[in-house]
């Protein structure tokens, strides 16, 4: 069994601004697992604010000695060993996890949604993300999102109401709001959430900083809209910590080390009565297609990461009637372009 990896840089179609940062590229690491003539594909997406980079992923993946395992089917053991090599490196770990899952699915000649026993008819609508911008730009991006049934809007900047009003000039589509920890005063947060509830907003993601869980618990008791944890819930062990402060959790492969842990997180969250979103970073269709395999299990999908870039190198899940649908291919259901 052989692991290879190569750095790649995604170009974003538009500069992307959230409450805490702005950028126009995203570094990713593309990985493969080769064994018995089958190639599995994986990807690490590493937005700089999460602390990983081409350098850190290269260094970490060089320490993964995949050749010592006899088969990619030993997913639990291999991924457990890799996770215990070092803390952190969640995206780099996800690259190996996704490539192993792709290999196993290809060897079984089945897509993962079938291996997991899921029904594609249960996939909810995905949202299209609009970053913090001037009203003119927000109106243009809203028009560009015509194929999507739901919008996701980044708030927590200086012009929250202007952003929503700009979208409402153009469309009545449901909006999901992501404040990215941008509101620090709980009473002010409640006021804006009450206003948002009158604007056909479905939910609010990460209204307050992760460190302000007590304030978030206060907010949850009063909020007319569901609150969804993103920055507050990274891995499986975080789920039980956030149930008092949130109605739901946004699970991302790049946060939680990949498909295996994401599946466990979804089942745990459900058992605790939490709603579940599956989200993404800016990613190629490789990681998006991997996440799409899990999407029949969730209440909300936010899988527009590949639609926000101009240099995708995979073909896989596609937007169909507002839903991000996996291809019929085995594994994670992707083809590498140009090979
Ligand atoms: Mg978020």
Overview of the structural elements:
The protein is of the alpha/beta class and 339 residues long. The chain folds into 2 domains: 2-109, Enolase-like, N-terminal domain (Enolase-like, domain 1); 114-336, Enolase-like C-terminal domain (TIM Barrel). The protein contains 11 helices and 15 strands. It has an 8-stranded parallel β-sheet. The chain has a 3-stranded antiparallel β-sheet with strand order 1-2-3. The two termini are 21 Å apart. The structure holds magnesium ion. Magnesium ion (MG) is lined by residues 178, 180, 205-206, 230, 250.
CATH superfamily of the largest domain: Enolase-like C-terminal domain
What fold name stands as the CATH topology of the largest domain?
TIM Barrel
Under CATH at level 1, the class of the largest domain stands as Alpha Beta
Number of helices: 11
Q: Judging by the overall fold, what is the CATH architecture of the largest domain?
A: Alpha-Beta Barrel
Number of domains: 2
Distinct ligands: magnesium ion
- Sheet with the most strands? 8 strands, parallel
Radius of gyration: 19 Å
Helix content: 25-40%
* Terminal residue distance: 21 Å
Number of strands: 15
Strand order across the largest sheet: 4-5-6-7-8-9-10-11
- The helix/strand order is EEEHHHHEHEHEHEHEEHHEHEEEEE
Shape: globular
